[in-house]
Prior knowledge:
Blueprint: E1 11-15, E2 18-21, H1 46-55, H2 61-64, H3 66-70, H4 81-96
Antiparallel strand pairs: 1-2
Amino acid sequence: MTVDMPMPMGYRRITEGRYREVVGLGYHELPEGMVIEHRPGRTVTEADNVLMTTLGGNDAPIHTDAQYSSLTEWGRPLVCSSITLHIVGGMTVRSTSGLTIDNL
């Protein structure tokens, strides 16, 4: 006699006693206004800024030149906005790419 185990969250039943992890949410599971918190958080470092700004071909001194940036109202280089987009996009992959058609 087998005992019917409860379905673990985040998994679907393949056969009796065998489950497969479900990665991501289906489109029907993404209602308007839904908020998903992604962990762990991420601190953007100077190295991230220099590397991604250089790879992206953005040579604006506000992002890469410490001397120039020290003379601005912020007093230091600003993180290029495309870095933020890449990090946020990367953090959403696990919850959106498994079953949805398009990533955010």
